[in-house]
Specification:
Strand order of the largest sheet: 4-3-9-10
Distance between the termini: 38 Å
Strand content: 15-25%
Subunit structure: Monomer.
Binding site for Zn(2+): 27, 214, 239, 243
EC number: 6.1.1.16
Helix content: 40-55%
Radius of gyration: 26 Å
Subcellular location: Cytoplasm
Largest sheet: 4 strands, parallel
Shape: globular
Protein name: Cysteine--tRNA ligase
């Protein structure tokens, strides 16, 4: 199995540090709002990597954090007149809902930055003791030049970086904020501003810099040295570069053996931005499509290629996923009425031919997780099943065909077994119960019912005339 390693800029044979085990860290979202579809790409991609590693028999310790203290969270809290903790808790809950919709397995651990402050203070102390960090007026900075090999992940040359920082350095001097020994040094700890959340530290009441958070959480829940560190390519510099500098200086061992990064997502060939009005949250998408369609769409391109999101491409993804679901649904119907006798020789030959298709699927995934080619293998199985199944087949055979599709779809995290559809009267009954719950001011139950219906593809719309509903 080969993985493209950003560190070496080449595909490398995957050999874990400890046989049969994989330690994997994926940078999670900053929770100040609903997650957008750009956040969804690494979530889906690296969940699929994890699923495939598990299918191959590895025991995967998968850690993905929530950044729950940050300038954006504080800004949102001030705007709403609530605490930063209230904002982060609300959006972690919403994020987990979206992740469930995209069928992302919960991480082995989902650490929260705010619960790991002690570890961050300890690592900063170690960096100061080793001469890699220094304190100025309550702020602690990392001495970037002190770390040999700075820039090895992003392939940036430190002297070029400095040239780019000269203007910044001049601005800082003019504004009197020039406390750094070197313009390239970055913050490990910063003092609080009025009204901000803070923690006690030997240097000031304040909070950690963003980069130190991941270094500490990766060390605590995985090890000093891990197998795979992953995230979006926008994190290569400075975030991951700074993590390497911190972790390797503090721990004295290489930080991560393989670095994996997914490419950007564009909207109708343009960069997604609020100013262009092409900014979509995962929740927006869920109003029009089952989130399984979003997952299928994300996996239909190689994770290292930029992917273009458009209505037409989502429609194509919906049709593609429907083809798989329809094939499985047909096999489920045949299974119910198929005769209970041993597989015939002809049937055995067809089942044998699925092994070749499995081989193609594994070859695609073994080649740096080429999910686009892996999906083609699933379509081959669908075609095989569609043209080689009828009411004359045995139950054992139909079940084996169905399992062959479901197993591969499951590695990709695609749910292809249709849940029994809710009948109209069941939906009406749940809506009536929700209306009653709202009258009784039991809003928790009302929300629960709405979420339950949403999970089954039923979308509610509260209008003046009452509640309308439709199937997604």
């Amino acid at each position: 199995m080969k993985i493209y390693n950003t560190l070496s800029r080449s595909k490398e044979e995957f050999v874990p540090l400890e046989e049969g085990k994989v330690k994997m860290y994926v940078c999670g979202p900053t929770v100040y709002n609903l997650i957008h579809i750009g956040n969804a790409r690494p979530m889906i991609v690296f969940d699929t990597v994890r699923r495939y590693l598990e299918y191959k028999g590895y025991d995967v310790n998968y850690v993905s954090n929530f950044t729950d203290v940050d300038d954006k969270i504080i800004k949102k809290a001030i705007e709403e007149g609530v605490t930063a903790e209230e904002i982060s808790k609300r959006y972690i809950k919403e994020c987990k809902k979206d992740m469930a919709g995209m069928n992302i397995k919960p991480a082995t651990t989902h650490p929260l930055a705010t619960q790991e402050i002690d570890g961050m203070i300890d690592m900063i102390k170690t960096l100061i003791d080793k001469g890699y960090a220094y304190e100025k007026n309550g702020t602690v900075y990392y001495r970037t030049r002190r770390f040999e090999g700075y820039g090895k992940l992003s392939k940036k040359n430190i002297d070029d970086l400095e040239a780019g920082h000269r203007d910044d350095a001049h601005k800082l001097k003019v504004s009197g904020e020039d406390e750094k020994e070197d313009p390239l040094d970055f913050v490990l700890w910063k003092p609080k501003k009025d009204g901000e959340p803070y923690w006690e530290s030997p240097w000031s009441e304040g909070r950690p810099g963003w980069h130190i958070e991941c270094s500490v959480m990766s060390k605590k829940y995985l090890a000093d040295e891990i197998d795979i560190h992953a995230g979006g390519e926008d994190l290569i510099f400075p975030h991951h570069e700074n993590e390497i500098a911190q972790s390797e200086a503090a721990n004295g061992v290489p930080f991560a053996k393989y670095w994996m990064h997914n490419a950007f997502l564009n909207i109708d060939n343009k960069k997604m931005s609020k100013s262009l009005g092409n900014f979509f949250t995962v929740r927006d998408i869920s109003k029009e499509y089952d989130l399984q369609v979003l997952r299928f769409f994300m996996l239909s391109a190689h994770y290292r290629n930029p992917i273009n999101f458009s209505h037409d491409l989502m429609e194509a993804a919906k049709n593609g996923l429907d083809r798989i679901i329809t094939a499985v649904t047909n096999l489920t119907h045949l299974e119910k009425s198929a005769k209970d006798s041993a597989m015939t020789e002809d049937e055995k030959k067809v089942i044998d031919s699925t092994k070749d298709i499995y081989g193609k699927f594994e070859a695609a995934m073994d080649d740096d997780f080429n999910t686009a080619d892996a999906i083609s293998a699933v379509f081959e199985l669908v075609k095989l099943a569609n043209s080689n199944s009828s009411e004359d087949n045995t139950k054992e055979y139909i079940t084996a065909l169905k399992e062959s599709i479901v197993t591969l779809a499951d590695i990709l995290g695609l749910k292809v077994i249709k849940e029994e559809e809710l009948l109209d009267e069941d939906i009406e009954a749940l809506i009536a119960e929700r209306q009653q719950a709202r009258k009784d001011k039991n809003f928790a139950r009302a929300d629960e019912i709405r979420d339950e219906l949403m999970a089954k593809g039923i979308i509610l719309e509260d209008t003046r005339e009452g509640v309308r509903w439709k199937r997604a």
